[in-house]
Amino acid sequence: DARGYKWVRWRVWLCRVLALLTGGLLALLFYWRPRLGVLARGSPCPLAMADVLLIQQDSGNKQHVVKVHTEEMEEGLGELDDNESRDTVQLYQQDQKTLLRYYILDGLRYVWLDRKESFVRVILNEDWTCQDLHGFQKGLSPQEQIFRRVYGSNLIDVPVKSYIQLLFEEVLNPFYIFQLASIILWMSDHYYYYAVCIIVISLISIGVSLYEIRKQSVTLHNMARLVVDVKIRKSSGEQIVSSVDLVPGDCVLIPAEGLLLPCDAALLSGECLVNESMLTESVPVLKTPLPAGDQRYNSETERRYTLFCGTQVIQGKGGGLEGSPAVAVVTSTFFTAKGNLVSSILYPQDSDFRFNRDASKFLLFLGVICMGTIYSILLFIKYNDIFVRSLDIVTIVVPPALPAAITTATIYAQKRLKNLNVFCISPPRINISGKVSVFCFDKTGTLTEDGLDVWGIMEGNSVGFSELVPDPSLLHPGPMLSALACCHTLTLLHGNPVGDPLELKMVESTGWTLDEPLGNRHTTDSEFGGHRILAMMNPPSQKHTTCVQALAIVRRFAFSSALQRMSVVTVTPGRQSVVAFLKGSPEMVASLCKEETPAQFTTTLSKFSKDGLRVLALGYKPIALDMDLNTIQEEVEKDLHFLGLLMMKNLVKTETPGVINMLKLACLRTIMVTDNILTAVNVAKNCGMIGSDERVIFVKASPHTGLYQSGYNYHLAINGKSFAALSDYFPEELPKVLMRTTVFARMAPNQKTQLVKELRKLYRVGMCGDGANDCGALRAADVGISLSEAEASVASPFTSKIQNISCVPLLIREGRCSLVTSFSLFRYVAMYSLIQFCSVLILYTMRTNLADLQFLFFDLVLVTVLAIVMGKGGPSNALHTSRPPASLWSLPVLGSLLIHTLLIILGQTGVILFTRAQDYVPLNGTTPGENNWPNIEDTSLFAVSGFQYIFMAVVVTKAHPHKKPLYHNWFLILLVLFSGLMIWLVMYPLPFVRVLLSLYNVEDMSFKFVLVGFSALNFFTCLLMEQMLIDLGLLNSLRLLRGRRQSKKPYKRLDSQLSESSSWPPLNQTLLPSHNIVRLLS
């Protein structure tokens, strides 16, 4: 939602004059609230004429103010092709000049399109097909390159601001403006020591902040900026250019020694071995050429053909005349995968977390308490310092350090996670992880081991399956053995095969060896009918006879999660035969084969899957010798002959059952998102997601029919096809199915993302995966953890170098600890302000105040140190069944603050009344505060309030069950030391200390003991109230007075409905939606 505004000259000049007259306050207001500046200086206008835009984001109430830029383009563009002008931006003529109107938001460029009458994000042509990309191999003309400059430079340039600019932005922060106003107020009130100390601390804080911001900016700038020289093919020939000048459609030549990719690109010819550890994969990945077809190109669905920015091409093979593969540049700058990573760090998503919202509201609540200022005004109505006293109250009641204090816990948690090899690029998500109710897991590589061992092979045909062969090397020569040896995307790196661990095990079990052509490629090709050879598969030497020949792989179609298969085309020496081999999920392979799958196919597959085996099917197809081997994938992968099944044992990681059990004991629901549904159910039982005594209901749905199998204490299991049908045709049933489903099988990457989004409508959702085909789901989750070697991954906010799911309870424990600590810090800083507020108001009634160094002692020595150390406590070793609260506007939090404030007031008032009853010289109320120092009233309140600051830190600090006890932290030692310090200051202060702090010389030891006793009584009373009303839940019992209400949490409401419903799950009956029928059978 964007609204346009045009600057009005007289309004602009009026605002400038008013800014001068107000001493810059108006300009400061516009700096903090840019929207007000736009409304004051501009008038609404059509977007096509706007100088500035107000943009409302879909995700909430956040508004952006962006300036519209006008850029003159190079002339001589001429008339563009209809398709070109339709699919990219249109430029318009103004004053005989070609102008481009655009704005930049979050690093992305949005340009004005006349035909759409709106600003549109500049992205790759959405209508480009794979065939269109292949057309770019000829290179772009100079005219086309000039036109594509609209996409901007191919550079992820993270700005590094100067120290002067950073200083300006930091100083204008509301926190420091408030500090500056407070310092001026304190100086005018003769609080020189305190003001000077705050100035020094603020300067140090600003300096450290500037250094850290600058350091992080430089680090991110160096990580993001990538400028290399690349060779591109143009219509006029080849040319070496800077990567900054690349535009979509440029044809880049990859040298054999590899290249650090400066852009996202689709591989059009040849093969590339790529290290993608920065993104997802920890093992080198072989990229194969993009098939030419009419389908639209998408980098996510065509990952196996896409080279991503920031990844390292280890080696390039084949393709051009000089052996360099050609690629078409697809996207640039922030549109690349690396750009998404940088963008997610620079512009993190706003986390709609209740704790953060409530903290801001509470600051306003404390501001309302400033109505106590009215009380002070009434007291001083006949004096001259009314205004100063009132402002002083404001600086006490509204703690400017509150927002910073509650982030302390997150900073400590992030540091602890980093020490445990869990890295975070979005710190606010740490607190959110403490509220996660459901965690989804990918199976392979996450719950189970990456590597698989070949368990056996069963050949099959229309008659049936043969006997199980445990070792592929024992197979007789034939298509099955050839398929196992050739159907892969392995390649050689320094003489060793690298690639998918599954394929490595498969090829290794056959005994065949991988070789790649060297030297004169055309000589090697001539032995195989003139085809360019990608790889040679040689049988074991003892089998290398006329019956078992070497096979040359001449075409590869890499594995696709969406297609659930991969295939290769092979040629025998002399091109005696050409055969295509295919492997993939059994259901997919069977659907591509002729009507000759074994009759026992379903039962056999079910048997092996229930045993927890990873089952793949293989097929083959003889290809006519005169067929063009560059044909599209669909032509190769149809009308296949079924070969048989390959079974591989995928062991559950040793850590998995323990972690799943820990999560279940903590009442955290676990979900598996994986491959074959029966295999998944077996793994779910092995790792403890499904109990041995619990039954599983398999859900099958389509636009017309659906099936359930009955059971009680049940878990639902559903595949991707049925999930899609439920989403599209039965949306009213989908939440109910989600509530009870533990296994989601055969889910495409986009379905995983959709699943997480649907779950988020019910829960706070976590997702853990290896980042290979679940990047979208990891990013869509509230908390996503990618198991990767990289410290920062494009896949998710959290990246774990721990290659098992033990990082999940670790993160949840840290999240809960951080959330509980944030609550404690919030309550402590709020109580600190209220304690000081009460002290100052009481002393104001006696025409005095706390001394300068007394404020300094409380604020810097006691409160600051206690708050810093309070946040350092680590998480408990176990996950509790309950989750910490996230709402500050709850009865326990507000009730405890109110009760403790009343007890604080009673304690301070009681001490003052007791003090005034003593036989001491009364305070002279006709003179200002500093002339009354030292006085016994101030000294008494100093003693009691000092103890209150210390013991309130104990009262509000929560440990069990989400944090380690206090004795595990320096916090307890600090409490003892500070308590001893206060007792010493009250009972036996040294003369110079007494003078320094302006304390009254009390010689009566019994009076001093009474002060300490008052403080102790106040402490135990507050602690007792906290234990009884908050910890034991007596305050929560007041909710019973309002009667039982329905839970606000969607999943609890739905769970209650399903538990009370006798018709769910609906078994042996037919559901009749408005436009479809689903039959549910047991």
From TrEMBL:
SUPFAM superfamilies assigned: Calcium ATPase, transduction domain A, Calcium ATPase, transmembrane domain M, HAD-like, Metal cation-transporting ATPase, ATP-binding domain N
GO molecular function, one term: ATP hydrolysis activity
A GO BP annotation: autophagosome-lysosome fusion
UniProt subcellular location: Membrane
TM stretches of this protein: 12-32, 191-213, 362-381, 393-413, 825-847, 853-870, 891-914, 939-957, 969-990, 1010-1035
Keywords: ATP-binding, Magnesium, Membrane, Metal-binding, Nucleotide-binding, Translocase, Transmembrane, Transmembrane helix
Domain P-type ATPase A: 230-318
Domain P5B-type ATPase N-terminal: 4-112
Protein name stated in the entry: Cation-transporting P-type ATPase N-terminal domain-containing protein
Organism name: Periophthalmus magnuspinnatus
Organism lineage: Eukaryota, Metazoa, Chordata, Craniata, Vertebrata
